[in-house]
Amino acid sequence: MSVTKRVSFEDNAVVAQLYGHHDSHLVRIEALTGAQLNARGNQLDVTGEAEEVAIASKALTGLYERLKRGLSVEMADVDAAVRFARNGADNGDGEGIRTRRRTVAARSPGQRTYLQALSERDMVFALGPAGSGKTYLAVAMGVSLLLAGKVERIVLSRPAVEAGERLGFLPGDMKEKIDPYLRPLYDALHDMIPAEQIAHRMESGEIEIAPLAFMRGRTLAHCFVILDEAQNTTPMQMRMFLTRLGEGSRMVITGDPSQTDLPNNQRSGLTDAVDTLGDVPGIRFVRLTSQDVVRHDLVTRIVEAYDARDKQAKR
After folding, report:
1. What is the CB neighbour count within 10 angstroms for residue 219?
2. pLDDT tens across 284-297, in order?
3. CB-based burial of residue 312 (10 Å sphere; 0-12 exposed, 13-18 middle, 19+ buried)?
4. Range of 234's domain?
5. Are residues 25 and 145 in the same domain?
6. Is residue 167 assigned to a domain?
7. Minimal CB count within 10 Å: which of 49, 92, 184, 205?
8. Are 185 and 134 members of one domain?
9. 284 exposed, middle or buried (CB, 10 Å; 0-12, 13-18, 19+)?
């Protein structure tokens, strides 16, 4: 049964930003919810099934309040508002994580849970599909803590190439060999800190990006440490890495258990850690899903299609 709800907004200047250029934000909300939006000045008629109308209305109200607080609204924020509304949650932007170049905020209920864990726990495991913000939010938290003087260094690490880290066949010196595999970590940093500051902080040792093999034998004190693509570690490598945690440090381990590059007979260190450490006090495990993917819409649908196939294969 179709219903119509009228939503009114007081500030006409804010309404123009809410609707978007050529009403692009309203078009996006229509596409995501199935509701029809009919704008008449500062009033909107929202028509559709009751659930669709409720989701669209809540998303619009959340975006309006965001604009009233002086924050901008981009298409990704529209998507996030609908995602929160669909899950029955309040819009989750809040204050977010402040970095030099931007404020990074949760764009799904799962991401909000993840950010809360990052702020509360010294060791967090984030498991989820590509595009769910595992690495990006962890880097944002590390940058924020570094800029606030709460940690002395950020250490970012990944298994290079594969669990065995055999780099000899690649051209170039060691830096040239490993840089392509660490590129996503550089990309996240460049989103948050000006390039010249990154170079300066890397020279001073405040930011370190290195393959997992370089962690052996070290104690990482007063650091924010991230291990990315952890599904490609072996259990021995994972144990080595986790025991590097030193005084005043925090550690985040991110990975997608469904995307391991290990040989078929090799157990993933990430899966092994989840099974071994699940009941250890002080460690938080956050599981993100396709509903937390904030890349292109197709990525969400691709993840869901593969998940459905894997579940079917296990029956």
Report:
1. 11
2. 999 998 888 876 66
3. exposed
4. 97-314
5. no
6. yes
7. 205
8. yes
9. middle
Q: How far apart are CA 92 and CA 146, in angstroms?
A: 24
Tokens linked to 270: 């990430």
Q: What pTM does this model have?
A: 0.79
39 and 132 within one domain:
no
Each residue of 230-247: pLDDT tens digit?
999 999 999 999 999 999
- Would the pLDDT of 253 be above 60? yes
Hey, what are 48's tokens?
A: 């559709």
Compute how many other C-beta atoms are within 10 angstroms of the C-beta atom of residue 44: 22
Same structural domain for residues 148 and 17? no
> Which of 21, 54, 86 is where one domain is finished?
86
Token pair recorded at residue 246: 């030193």
Could you tell me if 180 and 268 lie in one domain?
yes
pLDDT at residue number 170: 47
Domain boundary residue among 86, 117, 141? 86
The CATH number for 272's domain is: 3.40.50.300
Q: Which letter, b or e, does each residue of 132-154 get, where b requires 16 or more Cβ atoms within 10 Å of its Cβ? A: bbbbbbbbbbbbbbbeeeebebb
